[in-house]
Amino acid sequence: MDVHVADHPLIAHKLTYLRDKRTDSPTFRRLADELVTLLAYEATREVRTEPFEIETPVAATTGIKLAKPKPIIVPILRAGLGMLEGMVRLLPSAEVGFLGMIRDEATLQVSAYANRLPDDLTGRQVFVLDPMLATGNTLVMAIDYLTDKGARDITCVCLLAAPEGITHVERELADSDIPVKIVVGTVDERLDERGYIVPGLGDAGDRLYGVA
Question: Is there a contact between 64 and 52 (Cβ–Cβ < 8 Å)?
């Protein structure tokens, strides 16, 4: 597993305001969108392309376009929806699937409640969106879903990660030969007893959409 921490002053700047408990939901959504676009540049560095012949106003030339089959973006509901627009902005021709997952706050175990994915992901580059890599249980389950459908090229984009979560995902994928890349804005200090990232930014879903 390859973990890439996107060390950039603009990312750190936006993360600072995302963390601030005084940041309201509309501002939080805007900042998350802007941050994802920055992270998407790193996440798509190895997106597959193919040659494409065009004519400029001056001469014929060869450019590139995204290769087929198209990549697919998979936000983890509900918080991952707040990252979708920022990712689609960079990959407008990509398709979008959804995984709905919920964490039991007492046991920290994850269960799935929605699955809107193609039956076959063979040959597709998959970009998973989940704001928080905390315990790692959600990401492991999502990767299992995707690999069961044939995915063999998976990149996960997260705003924040905890060391324990990264370690857990690495351990669970240790026997897998499927390459997985994780792109994060930063790795925080630790998890607390509730499974929240410290210092973190709280519950990303609640910060994005309010408590419902």
Answer: yes
Catalytic annotation, pick one of 107, 119, 175, 177: 107
User: 120 an active-site residue?
Assistant: no
175 classed as catalytic: no
Which position among 103, 144, 152, 186 bears the catalytic label?
103
Q: Residue 79: its pLDDT value, please? A: 84
| Catalytic residue list contains 138 | no
Average pLDDT over residues 73-85: 90
Contact 72, 65 (CB under 8 A): no
Q: Is 29 a catalytic residue?
A: no
- pLDDT tens, 96-150? 999 887 777 677 677 777 788 889 999 999 999 999 999 999 999 899 999 999 9
pLDDT score, position 111: 75
The single residue of 19, 29, 48, 203 carrying the catalytic annotation is 203
Cα→Cα distances 186→15, 85, 104, 199, 211, Å: 9, 21, 25, 11, 26
Q: How many CB atoms lie within 10 A of CB 141?
A: 18
Whole-number pLDDT of residue 212? 53
